[in-house]
Amino acid sequence: MQYAAYNVWANHKIIFAIEQLPEELWYKQTPSSFDTLFKTVLHMWDAESIWWQRIRLHEHIVIPSQQFDSSLKDACNGLLHQSMQWEDYVRQLDAPALNSDLIYKNSQGEQFFQPLPEVLHHVFNHGTYHRGQLVTMMRCLGAANVPATDFIQYARRKEG
Questions:
Q1: CA distance 149 to 146
Q2: pLDDT value, residue 158
Q3: Do the beta carbons of residue 88 and residue 51 sit within 8 Å?
Q4: Residue 38: which of 50, 28, 47, 49 has the closest Cα?
Q5: pLDDT, mean of residues 67-92
Q6: ∠ at Cα 18 (17, 24), nearest 5°?
Q7: Torsion sign over Cα 95, 99, 103, 104
Q8: Helix (H) or strand (E) holding 20
Q9: Sequence-distant (≥ 6) Cβ neighbours of residue 148 within 8 angstroms
């Protein structure tokens, strides 16, 4: 699934740009769903990790931010590692596995039955949503070099 590779590529681009900013901007509040660049990256890692654990059928979900007391760079590394795991996983799926269903519980304990392609689409689309927020936050913080992370940018790069 091309979208998994795109997710890794786009996360690399946005994280590289964030890491070029002065460190004080990583933690500076700016209006968004999560009010700092750090909190947004940490949320993205949480979400990818939670879904990863669900897809691996873990009974007890471990949320990275609940056990994390470190820097933005460490959160970025965690997110990138998780994204690469997703890419490797998707690359290895055969047609029967890709067409399987996932039974999981959400954070409220409600059980759901979801086709795997819908879960995968959600995971990668969620990253796109929050990368858009990171772009806006970076602009509000005065960043000059904000990367374009649209899917079409990834697709064009692959063609060239």
A1: 9
A2: 62
A3: no
A4: 28
A5: 94
A6: 140
A7: positive
A8: none
A9: none
Return the bridge partners of 111, or none. Answer: 105
> Which structural domains are found in the chain, ordered by start?
2-159 (1.20.120.450)
Rama region for 70: left / alpha / beta (φ>0; ψ in -120 to 50; rest): beta
The closest alpha carbon to 34, from 130, 108, 126, belongs to 130
Position 146 pLDDT exceeds 90: yes
Query: What count of residues does the chain have?
Result: 160
Sort 151 into a burial class: Cβ within 10 Å, 0-12 / 13-18 / 19+.
middle
pLDDT number for residue 67:
85
What is the C-alpha separation between 13 and 76, in angstroms, rounded? Answer: 11
At 133, list the tokens.
């927020």
Q: Are 137 and 14 in contact (CB under 8 A)?
A: no
The proportion of the chain whose per-residue pLDDT surpasses 70, expressed as a percent, equals: 98
- What average pLDDT does range 43-49 have in this prediction? 98
